[in-house]
Design goal:
Radius of gyration: 25 Å
Shape: elongated
Helix content: 10-25%
Number of strands: 22
Strand order of the largest sheet: 9-10-11-12-13-3-4-5-6-7-8-22-21-16-17
Structural class: mainly beta
Strand content: over 45%
Number of helices: 4
Largest sheet: 15 strands, mixed
Oligomer: single chain
């Protein structure tokens, strides 16, 4: 090969941790579609997941086989503005625009999805087994393993390829990795024995394909929930939320105004809120003793005691199986001061 992946020197694998870290960095940087499956020979719990990140948007699909304990079918999506979580098992959909709790949840699930591939790259005691060049001209180093590394060497949080009540009896693993450290294909087969004497084989495999920036389509299920967008006006004392599409929000639906990790209060409209309608919210009072006031399609005249929103502020609610929210990030005086101080200390 013209060059060797991180963690490989003079034709030998010298640092599996570096190899796994390089692969993790490339996957999370985006531009790849990871498809991973887990199959058990005699036990329930087989599953599959896909993590696609085209650098502009990310999609995760987690599927656990029917009949498995806690079986679920979950999808997430987020791009620069929108985010969503869909539980295909229950039919629930959560939608968020801007910095909302739904966005945090979708990003958290996406981050967790990369932990499992790293575990199976980190665990085997890899040895070089030749190289190959694909039809497209990509060079790949081939690695093989017939044993696992000690768990103490795999890194905290990345060593769990078997349960605490299981012991690995044999290992057969193979991967192909590019010179920059991207694991293109991986297969790990483990023969496991439980403390009760039960034995089974678990086979984990994945492929990582390139995808172009902006190639992922916005899922149609996002539109099952009301679509909202938020902004502020009047020196951040007025929260403006537009209904831009999707289902109508029924009259009387409870809407929560959130500031950071605490609630400012609840409001509701005495009329349905449909596409094209605009919600105006202001609040009076300070800290934990604030009262929000809602107006629909009529911009209110703010009272003198209307106080500014700050930090991450969102308006959200739920209707049937659908949750919806729109948020906005408001720079606070303290954050501005911290940023200014940091710049001065760094000489910028």
């Amino acid at each position: 090969m013209s060059s060797l992946p991180p963690g490989v020197e003079d034709g030998a694998v010298t640092n599996v941790t570096a190899l796994a870290a390089a692969n993790q960095d490339l996957l999370t940087a985006g531009g790849h579609d990871l498809d991973m499956s887990i199959e058990n020979s005699t036990r329930e719990g087989a599953g599959r997941f896909r993590v696609a990140n085209d650098t502009e948007a990310s999609i995760v699909r987690l599927t656990e086989a029917d009949g498995a304990a806690g079986a679920t079918d979950l999808s997430t999506y987020f791009d620069g503005e929108e985010a969503g979580i869909r539980n295909r098992t229950s039919g629930e959909v959560a939608y968020g625009h801007g910095p909302t709790s739904t966005r945090r949840g979708a990003r958290f699930i996406s981050g967790l999805a990369y932990v499992l591939p790293r575990a199976y790259v980190s665990a085997p005691a890899w040895e070089t087994a030749g190289s190959r060049t694909t039809d497209s001209g990509e060079e790949r180093l081939v690695l093989h393993a017939d044993a696992l590394r000690p768990e103490s060497e795999r890194g905290s949080g990345f060593g769990g390829v078997s349960g605490t009540d299981e012991e690995v009896q044999s290992v057969d693993a193979r991967l192909e990795v590019t010179p920059d450290g991207l694991v293109r294909t991986l297969t790990v087969s483990l023969d496991l024995e439980r403390t009760d004497g039960e034995t089974y084989t678990q086979t984990v495999s994945y492929t990582a394909e390139d995808i172009e920036a902006g190639s992922l389509d916005r899922p149609t299920w996002l539109s099952k929930a009301p679509q909202l967008q938020a902004s502020t006006d009047s020196d951040d004392r007025l929260l403006v939320v537009e209904h831009t599409g999707g289902p109508t929000i029924e009259a009387g639906t409870n809407l929560t105004i959130g500031g950071g990790f605490r609630s400012v209060g609840n409001v509701s409209a005495d009329r349905p809120i449909s596409e094209g309608d605009t919600l105006y919210v202001y609040a009076t009072g300070e800290d934990f003793d604030r009262t929000p006031v809602l107006s629909v399609n009529e911009r209110p005249t703010l009272p003198e005691n209307a106080t500014a929103f700050s930090g991450r502020t969102q308006l959200g609610g739920s209707q049937g199986d659908h949750e919806f929210a729109a948020g906005v990030e408001i720079a606070s005086e303290s954050s501005d001061t911290a940023a200014s101080l940091r710049s001065r200390l760094l000489g910028r």
